[in-house]
Amino acid sequence: MSAPRAASASKARRPDDSPFDFNLDAAQPPRELKPFVFQWKDRRWTMQHLEELDVWGLVEAAEGGDVAAMTGAFRLALGPKDWEEFHASRFPQWRFKALFRAYRQHCGINIDGTPVDGREDI
Q: What is the distance, to the nearest Å, from the Cα of residue 54 to the centroid of all Cα atoms in its chain?
């Protein structure tokens, strides 16, 4: 039996005018990603929009379950300096839930991670 025929060089290579399928460098967010600002302990705190956060940090935090995912999102959104100060204070769970709810609403995300408006960005 003969060996399978290899694809011709012209079919295996991309044409010179099409060097890639998708230019991630040119991608833009689907909407404006405004920071979330909240008041607590007589101070203004600013969190990056959820969709601006490093996905790898979010994935690592999510491996610990729902509470770890929420905490990880806060840690990333506040940044190292503000997280340290924020985390050093007593913080009741009911405040944690209220803050996360307001943050999700600001970012347009339902509790299950789907967009509030029903559009799928992916």
A: 6
Closest among 105, 74, 109 to 89, alpha carbons compared? 74
Tell me, what amino acid is at 32? E
HEC string of 57-94? Answer: HHHHHHCCCHHHHHHHHHHHHHCHHHHHHHHHCCCCHH
pLDDT of 25-34, one tens digit each? 999 998 899 9
Question: Three-state SS for 106?
Answer: helix
Listed as ranges, residues in the chain with pLDDT below 50 are 9, 122
Does the model's pTM come out above 0.85?
no
Please state, in angstroms and as integers, the Cα–Cα distance from residue 21 to each residue in 17, 24, 96, following that order: 11, 10, 42
Taking the alpha carbons of 45, 106, 104, 60 in that order, is the dihedral positive or negative?
A: negative
At 73, give phi and psi (nearest 5°). Answer: -65, -45
- Please tell me the distance from the alpha carbon of residue 60 to that of residue 71, in angstroms, as a whole number: 11
pLDDT digits (tens, 9 = 90+) for 82-102: 999 999 999 999 999 999 999
